[in-house]
Amino acid sequence: MKLLKRLYDWVLSWANTPYGGTALFILAFAESSFFPIPPDVLLIALCLGNTKKSFFYASICTIGSVIGGILGYFIGFGIWHIVRDFFFTFVFSEKTFNYVQTLYQKNAFWAVFTAGFTPIPYKVFTIAGGICKIGLPILIIASILSRGLRFFVVGGLIWKFGKPIKIFIDKYFNLLTILFTILLFGGFIVLKYVVKH
Predict the structure, then answer these.
(1) How far apart are CA 26 and CA 19, in angstroms?
(2) How does pLDDT run across 144-184, given as a tens digit for each residue?
(3) Using CA atoms, how far apart are residues 38 and 51, in angstroms rounded to an integer?
(4) Cβ(184)–Cβ(77) under 8 Å?
């Protein structure tokens, strides 16, 4: 936990430098395949520092995250047998990984989308996607939609409401993303039912 707290503080420190945007891109890229701290931390800090650039920062975060997800895919697709012990020791558990593989057997698109938008570790899904050999276009499209939605919601809220929304996001972020995903799934189910009838 102390290591994670130090990493968290280090990530936040980039918001006070001229390299905040570059750091955000690198963080979003790394978090999609191996880094433990989500990019939302730095995204929120940068947006609060310059609310007019909130959507610009959300774009950087989305692009970095999707490209990082593609890297994660190719880690799983090409070199998993070399790096698996490292990932199971330091990044995620074998039990979590095995569960993700079962989700891919049900619906690969929704598995990636849900992981990309909610607090579920996205990196597990990108790497497992390569191992399970799901279609790369599925991973890319689901990632663009889910990561873009997640980061633009955060950026948009800060752009609209400023600092007061930060406390609310920090406190309820996990709950809000889960609730939104449930509502989104419900909307698609209703839409599917309406189309059928």
Answers:
(1) 11
(2) 999 999 999 989 988 988 777 767 766 766 666 666 556 55
(3) 20
(4) no
- 65 in Cβ contact with 39 (< 8 Å): yes
Query: Which helix (DSSP H) or strand (DSSP E) does residue 20 occupy?
Result: helix 20-31
Taking the C-alpha atoms of residue 53 and residue 46, their distance in angstroms, rounded to an integer, is 8
Which tokens is 177 given? Answer: 């993303």
Contact 154, 88 (CB under 8 A): no
Q: Where in the chain does DSSP place strands (E)?
A: none
Q: How many domains does the chain have?
A: 1
Rounded to whole angstroms, how far apart are CA atoms 117 and 136? 18
Locate 84 and state its tokens.
Answer: 């698996």
CB–CB of 70/40 below 8 Å? no
Domain range for 161 is 2-196
Whole-angstrom Cα distance, residue 132 to residue 59?
A: 29
